Amino acid sequence: MSSSREPQHKEDEEATEATTAEDEDTGAQVAPIVKLQEVALSTGEENEHVLLDLKAKLYRFDKEGNQWKERGVGTVKLLEHKETGKVRLVMRQSKTLKICANHRVLASISIQEHAGNDKSCVWHATDFADGELKEELFCIRFASVENCKTFKEMIEEVTQSQEKEGESKEATSTADLLEKLSVVENKEQEEKKEAPAEEKKEENEKQESTVDKK
């Protein structure tokens, strides 16, 4: 009986030793085959301040097909440049982050509520989303009336500030022009005053010269 149990006991010991050997940490470190480097992603928005950030669905009007076509579902932002103060509208698709709208918010932009839908707005803009400037008619739809109202009011606020800034620049330019004209007129008047004085001086010199000769 004892002889029949010995092989079984020996096999158990060998199995235990094998398992222990597998579980042992040799301390060896395996270097990765390919080293991945961290890459800083640039969105082009680093120098801009976010004025508005809302989720929406964007459409553009297809003139050829005479119908609205979806541009994407994602986040629409109004971004103000930290140095120049210029504001632009940017919208990216949620999953791909592809740009579906990218244009300046100018004083000439007129935004209106879409007929029959108080959750949508429409406006014209010169857009650069496809890498070239194109005149587009956009329609944007929000999940709530409140978000649509907030978007519309913010666009109107920006356009009004742009219009005031334009008027201020125009007034400053006009004032500078008037000042330059005034300076030119004064200079011309001074030159006219100086001319007779020089002529009189020359005439006196001639008379003095004539007297000396006599």
TrEMBL record:
One of its GO terms (biological process) is mRNA transport. CDD domains: RanBD_RanBP1. PANTHER family: RAN BINDING PROTEIN, RAN-BINDING PROTEIN 1 HOMOLOG C-LIKE. This is Pleckstrin homology (PH) domain superfamily protein. Its main location: nucleus. The keyword Protein transport applies. GO terms for molecular function: GTPase activator activity. Residues 1-12, 185-214 have a biased composition (Basic and acidic residues). Residues 29-164 form the RanBD1 domain. Keywords: mRNA transport, Nuclear pore complex, Nucleus, Protein transport, Translocation, Transport. It is found in: Nucleus, Nuclear pore complex. SUPFAM superfamilies: PH domain-like. One of its GO terms (cellular component) is nuclear pore. Transmembrane segments: none annotated. Residues 1-29, 159-214 are annotated as: Disordered. Residues 13-26 have a biased composition (Acidic residues). InterPro entries: PH-like_dom_sf (IPR011993), Ran_bind_dom (IPR000156), RanBP1-like (IPR045255), RanBP1_RanBD (IPR045256).
